[in-house]
Amino acid sequence: MLMICFYSVKGAPDNDMVCGVLCYLTATTDETQTNTVIDANVLTYDFGYTPIVSPGTGTPGYWKNHPDDWPVASITIGGVTYTKAEAIGIMQMKKNSDKTYDLFRALVSAKLNVLIGNAQGCIYDTILTADDWMASHPLGSEVEANSDAWQQIAPAYEMLDDYNNGLLCAPHRG
Prior knowledge:
Elements: E1 25-27, E2 49-51, H1 60-65, E3 74-77, E4 80-83, H2 84-92, H3 99-115, H4 124-136, H5 148-164
Antiparallel strand pairs: 1-2, 3-4
Helix pairs in contact: 3-4, 3-5, 4-5
Protein backbone atom coordinates (compact mmCIF):
# COMPACT_ATOMS: atom_id res chain seq x y z
CA MET A 1 0.00 0.00 0.00
CA LEU A 2 1.44 3.38 -1.04
CA MET A 3 0.89 6.21 1.39
CA ILE A 4 1.42 9.85 0.40
CA CYS A 5 1.51 12.50 3.11
CA PHE A 6 1.59 16.28 2.84
CA TYR A 7 3.10 18.29 5.65
CA SER A 8 3.05 21.98 6.34
CA VAL A 9 5.55 23.53 8.71
CA LYS A 10 5.02 27.09 9.88
CA GLY A 11 6.66 29.07 12.63
CA ALA A 12 4.60 30.21 15.58
CA PRO A 13 3.09 33.72 15.25
CA ASP A 14 5.21 35.11 18.09
CA ASN A 15 8.30 34.50 15.94
CA ASP A 16 7.15 37.40 13.77
CA MET A 17 7.19 39.83 16.69
CA VAL A 18 10.14 42.18 17.13
CA CYS A 19 12.74 40.00 18.81
CA GLY A 20 10.58 36.89 19.06
CA VAL A 21 12.09 33.43 19.33
CA LEU A 22 13.80 33.77 15.94
CA CYS A 23 15.18 37.25 16.59
CA TYR A 24 18.46 37.89 14.74
CA LEU A 25 17.98 34.74 12.65
CA THR A 26 17.22 34.33 8.97
CA ALA A 27 15.73 31.32 7.22
CA THR A 28 18.19 29.11 5.36
CA THR A 29 15.53 28.31 2.74
CA ASP A 30 12.71 30.04 0.93
CA GLU A 31 9.75 31.01 3.07
CA THR A 32 7.72 28.06 1.74
CA GLN A 33 8.51 24.66 0.31
CA THR A 34 6.12 22.28 -1.38
CA ASN A 35 7.30 18.70 -1.53
CA THR A 36 5.62 15.32 -1.66
CA VAL A 37 6.83 12.88 0.94
CA ILE A 38 6.38 9.26 -0.11
CA ASP A 39 8.52 7.48 2.50
CA ALA A 40 8.78 8.04 6.22
CA ASN A 41 11.70 9.96 7.69
CA VAL A 42 12.72 11.99 4.66
CA LEU A 43 15.44 14.20 6.06
CA THR A 44 16.37 16.17 2.95
CA TYR A 45 14.30 19.28 3.65
CA ASP A 46 15.94 22.21 5.40
CA PHE A 47 13.77 24.23 7.75
CA GLY A 48 16.71 25.70 9.60
CA TYR A 49 17.77 29.18 10.56
CA THR A 50 21.15 30.83 10.70
CA PRO A 51 22.27 33.94 12.58
CA ILE A 52 21.99 37.24 10.72
CA VAL A 53 25.39 38.82 10.26
CA SER A 54 25.04 42.29 11.71
CA PRO A 55 27.68 44.77 12.82
CA GLY A 56 25.54 45.60 15.86
CA THR A 57 24.20 48.91 17.06
CA GLY A 58 26.07 51.61 18.91
CA THR A 59 24.78 54.12 21.43
CA PRO A 60 25.45 57.87 21.28
CA GLY A 61 28.38 57.22 23.63
CA TYR A 62 29.86 54.80 21.12
CA TRP A 63 29.43 57.02 18.07
CA LYS A 64 30.79 60.18 19.70
CA ASN A 65 33.92 58.30 20.78
CA HIS A 66 34.55 56.32 17.56
CA PRO A 67 34.71 58.84 14.71
CA ASP A 68 36.69 56.43 12.53
CA ASP A 69 33.70 54.06 12.51
CA TRP A 70 31.35 56.63 10.98
CA PRO A 71 30.40 55.49 7.46
CA VAL A 72 29.73 59.07 6.32
CA ALA A 73 31.46 62.46 6.46
CA SER A 74 28.21 64.31 7.20
CA ILE A 75 24.72 63.56 8.46
CA THR A 76 21.39 65.33 7.99
CA ILE A 77 19.11 65.76 10.99
CA GLY A 78 15.84 67.64 10.66
CA GLY A 79 16.86 68.96 7.25
CA VAL A 80 20.15 70.41 8.53
CA THR A 81 23.40 68.82 7.38
CA TYR A 82 26.19 68.55 9.97
CA THR A 83 29.75 67.49 9.31
CA LYS A 84 30.93 64.51 11.28
CA ALA A 85 33.01 66.84 13.49
CA GLU A 86 30.02 69.13 14.10
CA ALA A 87 27.72 66.24 14.96
CA ILE A 88 30.28 64.69 17.32
CA GLY A 89 30.82 68.07 18.98
CA ILE A 90 27.09 68.39 19.62
CA MET A 91 26.91 64.82 20.91
CA GLN A 92 29.78 65.55 23.33
CA MET A 93 28.13 68.65 24.78
CA LYS A 94 27.18 68.51 28.43
CA LYS A 95 23.57 67.47 28.82
CA ASN A 96 21.13 70.25 29.65
CA SER A 97 17.36 70.59 29.89
CA ASP A 98 16.86 71.15 26.13
CA LYS A 99 15.48 67.82 24.90
CA THR A 100 16.32 68.58 21.25
CA TYR A 101 19.90 67.60 22.09
CA ASP A 102 18.78 64.24 23.49
CA LEU A 103 16.78 63.47 20.37
CA PHE A 104 19.66 64.65 18.18
CA ARG A 105 22.05 62.18 19.86
CA ALA A 106 19.61 59.28 19.56
CA LEU A 107 18.68 60.08 15.96
CA VAL A 108 22.29 60.46 14.78
CA SER A 109 23.12 57.12 16.39
CA ALA A 110 20.12 55.34 14.85
CA LYS A 111 20.92 56.69 11.39
CA LEU A 112 24.55 55.61 11.70
CA ASN A 113 23.48 52.18 12.95
CA VAL A 114 21.31 51.73 9.86
CA LEU A 115 24.00 53.07 7.53
CA ILE A 116 26.53 50.46 8.71
CA GLY A 117 24.15 47.65 7.80
CA ASN A 118 21.98 46.88 10.80
CA ALA A 119 18.36 45.82 10.32
CA GLN A 120 16.09 48.84 10.06
CA GLY A 121 12.58 47.45 9.65
CA CYS A 122 11.67 48.06 13.27
CA ILE A 123 13.01 51.63 13.37
CA TYR A 124 12.64 53.10 9.88
CA ASP A 125 9.32 54.88 10.50
CA THR A 126 10.53 56.14 13.87
CA ILE A 127 13.62 57.66 12.25
CA LEU A 128 11.38 59.49 9.77
CA THR A 129 9.11 60.72 12.57
CA ALA A 130 12.05 61.95 14.65
CA ASP A 131 13.61 63.65 11.63
CA ASP A 132 10.36 65.49 10.91
CA TRP A 133 10.07 66.52 14.58
CA MET A 134 13.63 67.87 14.52
CA ALA A 135 12.74 69.94 11.43
CA SER A 136 9.86 71.50 13.40
CA HIS A 137 11.88 71.79 16.64
CA PRO A 138 15.44 72.66 15.57
CA LEU A 139 18.43 71.85 17.70
CA GLY A 140 18.67 74.39 20.52
CA SER A 141 15.01 75.42 20.47
CA GLU A 142 14.71 74.90 24.25
CA VAL A 143 12.15 72.08 24.30
CA GLU A 144 11.60 71.10 27.95
CA ALA A 145 10.83 67.57 29.16
CA ASN A 146 7.40 68.56 30.45
CA SER A 147 6.38 70.38 27.25
CA ASP A 148 3.67 69.18 24.88
CA ALA A 149 6.26 69.16 22.09
CA TRP A 150 8.44 66.66 23.95
CA GLN A 151 5.51 64.53 25.04
CA GLN A 152 4.63 64.09 21.35
CA ILE A 153 8.07 62.71 20.46
CA ALA A 154 9.10 61.00 23.71
CA PRO A 155 7.82 57.55 22.59
CA ALA A 156 9.90 57.84 19.41
CA TYR A 157 12.92 58.84 21.47
CA GLU A 158 12.47 55.73 23.63
CA MET A 159 12.26 53.54 20.51
CA LEU A 160 15.45 55.09 19.11
CA ASP A 161 17.17 54.50 22.46
CA ASP A 162 16.01 50.87 22.55
CA TYR A 163 17.22 50.34 18.98
CA ASN A 164 20.62 51.91 19.69
CA ASN A 165 20.98 49.66 22.74
CA GLY A 166 20.25 46.52 20.71
CA LEU A 167 16.83 45.85 22.20
CA LEU A 168 14.84 45.82 18.95
CA CYS A 169 15.57 44.29 15.54
CA ALA A 170 19.38 44.55 15.58
CA PRO A 171 21.79 43.31 18.26
CA HIS A 172 24.09 45.64 20.18
CA ARG A 173 27.76 45.83 19.21
CA GLY A 174 29.62 43.12 20.99
